Automatic annotation (TrEMBL):
One of its GO terms (molecular function) is dihydrofolate synthase activity. This is tetrahydrofolate synthase. InterPro entries: Folylpolyglutamate_synth, Folylpolyglutamate_synth_CS, Mur-like_cat_sf, Mur_ligase_C, Mur_ligase_C_dom_sf, Mur_ligase_cen. Its EC number is 6.3.2.17. Coiled coil: none annotated. It catalyses: (6S)-5,6,7,8-tetrahydrofolyl-(gamma-L-Glu)(n) + L-glutamate + ATP = (6S)-5,6,7,8-tetrahydrofolyl-(gamma-L-Glu)(n+1) + ADP + phosphate + H(+).
Length: 439
């Protein structure tokens, strides 16, 4: 029988998440430490870290550097989590790297977890591919995340911190920031989002303790314009940041220019450390960045409702979605397709979006932790009773699956309306599949 690397990595026996670095360190030692042949930008945070990683990888690739990118979760295919110069790892490449990892993992007394296996596969692949630099996204937290097995990165980036995964990371911004700041090590540059004061104090202390320089984007120097629907064949958002006065991005969310500014500061930190990242590479990299599922217009055709999908899955994400809808589609009340995970703070998310919607369609994401659609519908009705002007909340539709949800939402929106699917990154792939939209 042929070896299936994805089935091996996803075996139920090691799906349990167990924070700690002992297993991944032993596994990589057995693999001759591929991480030591690589240089890294390490990115932690709660919101915006994926987009920041995408911007950074695109900038570095535009600078002519062979660039690896490791992200999670995947939206359409498993292979998209491991990329070199924008291309997903091939089936052969995934098989070869996983077989090397499997041989060593099977010899360990304490078998690595799914994420540890995946992290090791990625590092092996990046080393075998001769990457000049790797943009490495933290999976969960930072301090005890498997990606933190690396030595000091060139740059440690901390995106916006919020209250998420509180059972594992802590119930306050300061506690969560302490976990995220665990990626800060002596010998790195540190770039952080301008955090809330409690979190910012933790990041500042971590950088000072490591003897590292700390840069925080000055968002007062950020000036974003409205979406240009003509664009260069596609909608683009023009913006400027500091001395970069002619930037454009395909990522249309109102928050994306700020994520780009964070990535630009990381690129500037790399340049200060001797990496050749020219201004033109920054401009081209930002303009060429593609990052699916983040306020992405997945259908815009005459005679059919426009469909937007957004992977926002916590209260900050819901607020960003609300701001983006008001900015990109002013005065429009969308029909929301909502699917969330049960362990998220979905009541707070609902409080933000309920006053904005014309109608609500509930669906369960394709994930074992999904909140059942009927339970979500009850939550929408209960929350809507406490909010003025929320008549749309009184009768949310409970869908069987995503095709049913989108069909009902498009019927409710009408040909000139707007449908917005949000609540979980795990729904993005099923939305695109139901619409027949290319990944």
């Amino acid at each position: 029988m042929s070896f299936d690397p994805i089935a091996y990595i996803n075996e139920p026996r090691w799906l349990e998440s167990r924070l700690g670095l002992e297993r991944i360190a032993e596994l990589l030692d057995r693999l001759d430490r591929p991480q030591d042949r690589l240089r890294f930008v390490h990115v932690a945070g709660t919101n915006g870290k994926g987009s920041t990683c995408a911007y950074l990888a695109s900038i570095l690739q535009a600078a002519g550097l062979r660039t690896g990118l490791f992200t999670s979760p995947y939206l359409i295919t498993f292979e998209e989590r491991i990329r070199v110069d924008g291309a997903n790892i091939s089936a052969d490449g995934l098989t070869e790297a996983t077989l090397l990892v499997k041989e060593q993992a099977e010899a360990m007394a304490d078998h690595p977890t799914e994420f540890e296996l995946m992290c090791a596969v990625a590092l092996v692949h990046f080393a075998r591919s001769g990457c000049d630099i790797v943009v490495l996204e933290v999976g969960l937290g930072g301090r005890l995340d498997s990606t933190n097995v690396i030595d000091a990165p060139e740059v440690a980036v901390v995106a916006r911190i919020g209250l998420d995964h509180t059972k594992l990371l802590g119930t306050t911004l300061a506690a969560i920031a302490a976990e995220k700041a665990g990626i800060v090590k002596p010998g790195s540059a540190v770039v952080s989002w301008p955090q809330e004061p409690a979190a910012m104090a933790v990041i500042e202390a971590a950088a000072a303790a490591a003897g590292d320089s700390l840069v925080v984007p000055d968002l007062a120097r950020l000036d974003a314009g409205p979406v240009d629907w003509g664009g260069l064949g596609a909608p683009m958002r023009p913006f400027s940041y500091g001395r970069f006065a002619d930037l454009r991005t395909r990522l249309l969310g109102s928050y994306q220019p700020a994520n780009a500014a964070l990535a630009i500061e990381a690129a500037e930190a790399l340049r200060a450390r001797g990496w050749a990242v020219a201004d033109d590479a920054v401009r081209r990299g930002v303009a060429e960045t593609v990052w699916p599922g983040r306020f992405e217009i997945v259908r815009a055709a005459a005679g059919e409702p426009t469909v937007v999908v957004d992977g926002g899955h916590n209260p900050q994400g819901a607020r960003a979605l609300a701001d983006s809808l008001a900015d990109v589609f002013p005065g429009c009340k969308p029909v929301f397709v909502v699917g969330v995970l049960e362990d998220k703070d979905y009541p707070s998310m609902l409080e933000t979006v309920l006053p904005l919607g014309a109608a609500f369609v509930c669906v369960a994401p394709d994930n074992p932790r999904a909140l059942p659609a009927d339970k979500l519908a009850r939550a929408i009705r209960w929350t809507g009773q406490d909010l003025l002007g929320c008549s749309a909340c009184t009768r949310p539709y409970v869908a069987r699956d995503m095709p049913d949800a989108l069909a009902r939402a498009c019927e409710l929106a009408g040909p000139d309306g707007l449908v917005c699917a949000f609540g979980s990154l795990y729904s993005v792939g099923s939305v695109k599949a139901a619409l027949g939209t290319p990944a």
